[in-house]
Amino acid sequence: MIEYILFDAANTLIYKPSLWIKMDEVLKKNGYHISLKELKFKHKILSEFIKFPDVTNEEFYNLFNKELLNSLGIIESEKLLHDIFHNCKYLDWKAFDDTRNIPNYDCEVGVLSNFNLNLTSILNQTLPSVKFKHVFISEKEKVAKPNLLFFEKAIDKIGLPPQKILYIGDSLKLDIIPALKMGLNVKLIDRDNVYLSSKYRLDTLQNIKL
Fold first, then answer.
1. 3-state SS class at 64
2. Residue range 43-94, pLDDT digits in tens
């Protein structure tokens, strides 16, 4: 019986909907026409192999976007990297539509995320109707996923056996694998159909069964 649901934040509960529009604008301006499906797929796969820091900066995004461009068959230039970064920075976060059901879950909920200290404020703005029991933030806890210590700290503070906790995230490497090692129940949220073969796959938060 699940008594607590613990969520990842970025790309599980919240996302930046204008990211793809802004990135596509720069690519098309430079003569590259990439389908949204391919752009999202390559971005997702690359995100499994490049660790995002708690606090990102232009240097990190230039590294990430260089690899993303290369995966799309595009040779990066300093100008292209500059334009992508400056067209995509400071975008607003928004809650996914399927998060509207969370207040109806018959259990407590929390968040465990590799994020900076602004996360609590972002969650209050994007999900004002959700009352999170705990918000575990890597920058605050000084440990980040996939380090098992981060999960261990959360489980200790929640105060329930791991088998009574359901963890939901969008990354195999950062979320699902370490959560399974800690004995948690898991679901891999996959709205863009990247992990169709995963037995842990969940295509929408509306399909959660406690």
1. helix
2. 999 999 998 888 889 999 999 999 999 999 999 999 999 999 999 999 999 9
Helix (H) or strand (E) holding 52, with range, is none
Q: At how many degrees (to 10) do helices 19-29 and 78-88 cross?
A: 150
pTM for this predicted structure: 0.93
- CA 77 vs CA 27, 67, 82, 84, 88: distances in Å: 12, 12, 8, 11, 17
Taking alpha carbons only, the member of 98, 18, 204 closest to residue 187 is: 204
Question: Taking the CA atoms of the chain, what radius of gyration do you get in angstroms?
Answer: 18
| Sole residue written with tokens 């994020």 | 115
- What domains sit in the chain, N to C, each tagged with a CATH number? 4-14+93-207 (3.40.50.1000), 17-88 (1.10.150.660)
